[in-house]
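Renewal narrative, Specific Aim 1. Our central claim is that a sequence can be written position by position from structural information alone. The example that follows is taken directly from our test logs and has not been curated for this report. It begins with the structure tokens describing the chain, in the order in which they were read.
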């Protein structure tokens, strides 16, 4: 087969249709390197879970030394590339500073991530042990990587945070923007199809099921019709809220009050008071104070068996 005409047509396309070329530009963060960065980070967060051979306590210091040194080199290199893309005046020095700041938050991240694992174990009656959750539950990867990406996002690192969360998205089907603010004890059951937008704020002890969207209701546009960036577009979810499968909660002004339960397949674009039950009944959306059964836990529970509709 003569490939010369195809080659020439592609070269002509590169000249004619710009915008999806990146030629003679700065070196961008490498996808393979970012994926390895995410993998090394998970090994640091969960020592002994993802290694090919058993890890003993005696081996841990050397294991952490090697992982941390590799993570520092890789993270610094990818942050530097991201800063060069953003035309930072001193990408080398700033990358070193940002890398140190990000890595310094790893111990605190582990404390929060442990609450997520605990929430998964307590929130899923099918879970037999913590090991099963860490090894097999997609929420562990998607939430843990998002928490690290969020650190980088808040430090002002361009490109890289979104690439990290897209690694989690690709692996789990759970799409969490690195800008989303998430409290402790967060659990996503099943995970597939969950979408959490950039400006969403999620409280503590929140549980989501598959297909939940915390999204934007509409976009503000500028005089040229382009979306305005940086506005509050996604909802706030209070503490101890449970949101069942395929519910959509939209809008930057929308708030779901604490201790509420949102039923499956509802579409919410207005705020809901604390302690509410929200569900469809005869094609009508019902929002009413949540009731608990006699002898059941109080409104802090996230178990649907303990509330009546």
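The sequence written for that structure reads:
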């Amino acid at each position: 087969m003569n490939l010369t005409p195809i080659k020439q047509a592609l070269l002509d396309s590169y000249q004619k249709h710009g915008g999806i070329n990146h030629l003679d530009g700065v070196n961008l963060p490498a996808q393979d390197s970012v994926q390895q960065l995410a993998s090394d980070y998970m090994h640091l967060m969960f020592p002994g879970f993802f290694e090919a051979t058993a890890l003993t306590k005696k081996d841990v210091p050397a294991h952490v030394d090697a992982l941390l040194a590799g993570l520092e080199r890789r993270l610094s290199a990818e942050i530097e590339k991201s800063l060069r893309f953003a035309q930072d005046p001193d990408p080398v020095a700033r990358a070193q500073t940002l890398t140190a700041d990000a890595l310094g938050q790893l111990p605190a991240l582990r404390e929060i991530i442990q609450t997520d694992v605990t929430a998964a174990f307590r929130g899923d009656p099918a879970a037999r042990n913590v090991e099963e959750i860490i090894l097999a539950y997609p929420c562990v990867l998607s939430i843990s990587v998002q928490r690290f990406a969020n650190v980088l996002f808040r430090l002002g690192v361009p490109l890289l945070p979104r690439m990290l969360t897209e690694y989690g998205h690709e692996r789990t089907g759970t799409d969490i923007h690195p800008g989303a603010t998430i409290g402790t004890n967060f659990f996503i059951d099943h995970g597939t199809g969950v979408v959490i937008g950039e400006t969403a704020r999620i409280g503590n002890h929140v549980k989501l099921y598959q297909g939940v969207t915390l999204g934007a209701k509409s976009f503000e546009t500028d005089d040229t019709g382009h979306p305005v960036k940086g506005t509050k577009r996604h909802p706030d979810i209070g503490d101890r809220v449970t949101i069942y499968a395929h519910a959509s909660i939209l809008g930057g002004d929308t708030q779901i009050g604490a201790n509420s339960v949102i039923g499956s397949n509802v579409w919410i674009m207005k705020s809901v008071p604390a302690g509410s039950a929200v569900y469809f009944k005869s094609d009508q959306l019902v929002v009413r104070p949540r009731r608990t059964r006699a002898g059941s836990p109080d409104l802090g529970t996230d178990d649907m068996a303990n509330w009546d509709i």
